[in-house]
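User: Hi! I'm working on a homework problem where we have to compare a predicted structure to a textbook description. Could you give me the structure for the chain below?
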Amino acid sequence: MKNLFCSSQSLNNEASVEKCFVDRLLTDLGYADADIAYKTSLKEIKVGKGAKSELYKPDYMLLDRGVPVVVVDAKGPKEEINNWTLQCSSYCLEFNKKFDYNPVRYYVISNGFATSVFQWDKEEPLVTLKFADFEISSQAYKELKGLISKKSLSHLIEEERKESEQAVFVFDKVTLDELLGRFQKIHQYIWKKEKKKPSSVFEQLMKLVFVKIRKDKELHIKYGHPLKPLKLDVVFSVHWIDGQTQSENPINDILFRNLVNELEAEITAHRKKRIFETGEEINLAPDTIRWVVEQLEHVDLFGMEEDDVHGRMFESFLEATVRGKELGQFFTPRDIVRLMVALADISITKSHQDTVLDACCGSGGFLIQAMSSMIAKARGITGLSNTERRALERNIRDSCLFGIDAGSDPKIYRLARMNMYLHGDGGSNIYFADSLDKRIGMVGKPSIEYRQEIHELHDMLLKKKMRFEVILSNPPFSLKYSDDDRDQKEVMEQYDLFQLDGKIAKSLLSSVMFLERYKELVSENGRILAIIDESVLSGDSYHSIRNWIRKTFVIEGVISLPGDAFKRCAARVKTSILILRLKKEEEEQPDVFLAYAIRLGLERKIAKRIGVPVAELETDKETETVRILGAFLAFKNGESSRYVYPASAISDRLDVKFCIQDKGRKKPVWIRKGHKALAFKQILSVPIDRQVEVADDEEYQFLRVNYQGDVGDGDVIQGSDCAYSHLFRVKEWDILISNMGVGRGAIGIVPPYHEGKFVSNEYTILRAEGKEEAVYYSNLVRTKEILGDVLSTTTGMNRGRIDWDTIGNVEVPDYQRGDPQVSDLVSALENMWKSHATFTGIRYTYLDRTAKQLELNGADAQERWLGFKPPESTPYAANSLRVFKPS
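Assistant: Happy to help. Predicted C-alpha cells:
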C-alpha cells in the first residue's frame, strides 16, 4: 500500500517513520529546514510527576519566525501513539511556562500508520488520520493541513499577535524596598547560575538596568503619565524577545548594542564621556537575560517616585558586591544628602550659577540631588523666556556639576556617569582619577581616550585653576595613606598635613587629606560640606589636625549624625557634617552652629532596635531636616538660637556632644528633689587587690555583661592561650562595667555564683558602700540621661572604650538610704540569685542521673560527639561547654 509520501512496507522502525514519512509530511505542510528544530538541537525537559517524572524531548519542533508552535514526535510502527500523549502534552506545558503566552499550540504523534493532532492542553485529538488518509483529495488530510500547515499557522499567529500587541501593557506598582529586594534576588540568581564574581555580576546588571530605564524613558516620552503603553511598544519584555528571529540574544545584540553605538557617537562629538567600552556586551547567557527581563519588565524604573531611585538601585547591587566599611565611599543615606545640599544653599540666578564638586563622588548621589535643587531654583526664576530657561537648565546640567572618583573594582565612575545620564546628564563632567593626587593622578592602565580625559581635568584644575562655589563630599572613612607604600607616600608629601608642628606623619586618613584638597579647590567665598568621622573631631591624636582646620577655615557649623546612620555599610562609625569656608587673612572664628540629628540616615530595622519609633520615621526625618535647616539659615541671617555657640566652644574638640557642654543639665532637678550631685568617683571605688598574674597551666573562666545588665559566663581560656598577662578576680556584689559596652548599658552586679571568676582590663570593677547603693548606682548609670553624660566626653569614631577616668567624673543624684523600693530591689535580686542557684543545682543533678541511667554521657558518647561536632566560634569555646564526666 502507498500514500502521498511512502509505501507501507518502508515503515519498519522509528527511524524509517521519520525519514520516509514525517520528514516528507513536514515538507508538504510548507516547513523549510529553517522552520524545523530537530531532536539533536532540543533541550530535554522533565515531564510527569513524582516518581514517574522523566527527561524527555520530541523529535521535532516546528517554528514560526523562530518561535516554536508545534511539537512533533515519531514512533515505531508497532508503538501505540496514545501511550505518548502525556509526555508530549507535558513537554508543551513546561515549554509554554517560559512565556507570558502559549506559543506551542499543537502536538502531533505519528507511528506512520496512525497520526493524531492534539491541542496542547486537550486530552482528545482534534483529528486522527490512517496511513491511507494522506492523499491530496483526502478530507482528513485537508483538515490536518488547516490546523498545522505553515500557511494556516502563520496566518493565525499573525492575527493573534496583532490582537495581543494592541493590548495595554500593565506596569505594577512596586515600592523601592520591594524593588531592592527583587534586585537582591536577581543578583543571587546571576551569581549562582553564571558563576561570576560579584563585581562582574554588578557590571552586567548595570548594563541591563541601564537599557531598561532608557526604554522606560522612551515610553514616558511617547505616552506620558500615567504610563499605559501598547504591548507592541514595550521592547524590554519577554514578548519582544520571543518575537525576534534574527538574534538569539536580542537584548544584547540589538538594544544594548544600539545604546553603545548611540553613546559612542556622543563621545566622538565630545558631548559625553565614556560609560561603556567600544563593542562592549552584556556578558550573560541569553536565558539568564530573559529571566532578568521577566523579573523587571512590569516595573517602570524610570517613573518611580523616589529621589535618585536609580542611584539606590545601583547601590543595592553594590551592597551585594562590596561589603563592610568600603560601602561608605559609594553612597550616603539620601536624607543626609538632601540636608547637605539644602544647607549648601546653592545659588542660581539669571547671571550666575554656582559650580558644585564632589571629588569622591561614588554613585553621584550628591551631584544628582544638587542638580535637582539647581533645576528647581532655575524654574522658579521669573522673567525668563522659554529659550532662556532651557539654556539656563542646559548650562546647569553641562557646566555646573563635577565629580571625580578613583574606584576601579567595580568602576564606580561609570556608575556615576550612568546615573547622571539617566537624570538628564551632568555625567560629561565625571572623571576617573585620584583626586587626592594634586598632580591629577591616573588610575590603572591609560588609554589614549583616558589620557585625554586626564589632560582635560589637569587643564581645568591646574592650568585654568577652576574653583568651585560648593563642595559636597563624603570621603571614605577607613582609607589611610601610608608612608610604607611608595606611591601613597608621594601623594602624602604633597600635603601640609604631612608635616605639622615639625612632625612628619607616617600615615594620613584620606578624609583629612580631602579637607586640605578642598581648601585648594573651593572658591574664595565657597562652602565645603563634608562628612567626617568623629575620631578626627575628638581624638587626642588629631589635636594638630583640628588646629590646622581652625587655622585654615571658618567653621560655620558642625552637625552630629546618628551613630547608626552608616549601619548599612557595616561601619561602626560616628560621623558629623562639617560646614567650612576659607578663612580670610586675620579673620577670627565667629560664633558657630552646633546641632545633632537623631533620625537621619536610620533604616527602619535599626531605628526599631535602638528605640526610635518607626511608624512615622520618614515624617520625623523630614521634620528633623526642616528643623536643622531652618535653624542654620536663621543663624546665617544673624539670628541667635539654642544652636548658636561662641567660638570658644570649639577651641579644642569639634564634636558636638563635647562642644555643647550640656553634661549635668539635670542637676537643678536633682537638687530640687533633695539630692546632692556627686561624681561617681566620690561614691564608688575601684578595688586594688584583684589583679592576678596569668599562669600558663591554669584555666580562667571569663565573665561578660550584656546590654541588659546581666552578668554571665564568657569563655574559659587556658592561660597559655590568654592574650592578657594579668586578669582581675571578681567578688559577689561587685559592679561590673564593660568599657566597650557601657554606652549601651553594659553594667551589672556580680551574683554570688560568679564569685572568683575573671575579667580582663576591658572591664572596670567597682565597689559600693552597701547592697542598696550597688543596686541604685548600677541602675542609675544605665539611664539614658547618665549614659548621655558619659558619652558626651568620649572620643573616637566608633563605640570605643570608656574608662573609669571618664565615668568617674560624671555626676549623678546621690542615694538617700532607706528607700523601700531599692530595698525591695535588693531582696528581689538576692531571691533571683538563690532561685538561679537552686535551679542550676537541680538541673545538673537531674541531668547527671538521667545520663547515667540512659547511658547518654559515657566515654563512647563523648568520643562520638567530638567526632561529629562542628568548629567552635572561637579557639577556646569548647572549654566553656559543660561536659559531664563519663561514669
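For your comparison, note the following. Confidence is low (pLDDT under 50) at residues 323-329, 874-887. The chain has 29 helices and 31 strands. Good luck with the assignment!
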